[in-house]
Amino acid sequence: MNNHLLFVEDDAVIASGLIYALESEGFSVTHAKDVSSGQKVVEERKFDLAILDISLPDGTGFELVKALNATSTSVIFLTAVDDEGNIIRALEGGAEDYVTKPFRLGELMARIKAALRRRSGQGNTTTLGGVTINLNEGRVYVGGEALDLTALEYRLLLTFANHKGQMLSRMQILNLLWDSEGVFVEDNTLTVYIKRLREKLGSSVGIETVRGMGYRANDN
Q1: How far apart are the first and last CA of the chain?
Q2: For residue 203, what is the DSSP state?
Q3: Range 120-125 average pLDDT
Q4: What's the pTM?
């Protein structure tokens, strides 16, 4: 598999067990115990994916996200912090996924592999309204200009692009995001993603609210 992962976790028991499991799956793992050591290794080399705890001895995992985003490193938070505010902050900040402790190892591995598949890109391009989605790059363009979307905004847009003109219920959208992309999105945060996606897309794509039913994206 030959993917290099960064794992930032201060709990020695969790760290040793997960590092063993990851290496058994063929991953190369660099372990950091706190923010400062994590920042140092991020400056020294590029990673395919980072698994971050939020609560660390000298700060929080959020302090590492900006540097990781700048190097196109996928991020998964693995933490005991399960309040909605931190989940939204992580996902809107560009994290691929958010997993709470205690976790099931098989599920975590599936989410890691799904994130890496998304990073590698499959296919070529697809369009929706005035938007072009380059699937190989994982980038979105409007009028030739690259649009800055978070990972979840991107996947939500792709879900609409794959179902042009179809009315999708909230549950269908959530199931599509989970089933096809290996990510989990809570129903009470979906509205936030829809709102932000509309704001960023402007008039290039019409995302219609079908009152009491769901949403429909149309080619404008």
Answers
A1: 42
A2: G
A3: 59
A4: 0.58
Strand order through the sheet with 49-52: 28-32, 4-8, 49-52, 74-79, 97-100
Question: The sheet that has 125-128: what strands, in order across it?
Answer: 125-128, 131-134, 139-142, 145-147
Residue 179 above 60 pLDDT? Answer: no
* 39-98 per-position pLDDT tens digit: 999 999 989 999 999 999 999 999 999 889 877 788 999 999 988 899 988 888 888 889
Question: In the chain, which ranges are E strands?
Answer: 4-8, 28-32, 49-52, 55-56, 59-60, 74-79, 97-100, 125-128, 131-134, 139-142, 145-147, 167-169, 206-210, 214-218
Average pLDDT, the chain: 87
Question: Which one, of 15, 25, 119, 134, lies nearest residue 71 by Cα?
Answer: 119
Residue 176 token pair: 């599509």
Please report the pLDDT score of residue 95 as a whole number.
87
Nearest to 219 by CA among 205, 198, 202: 205
Give 3-state DSSP helix, strand, coil % of the chain, rounded to 5: 45, 25, 30
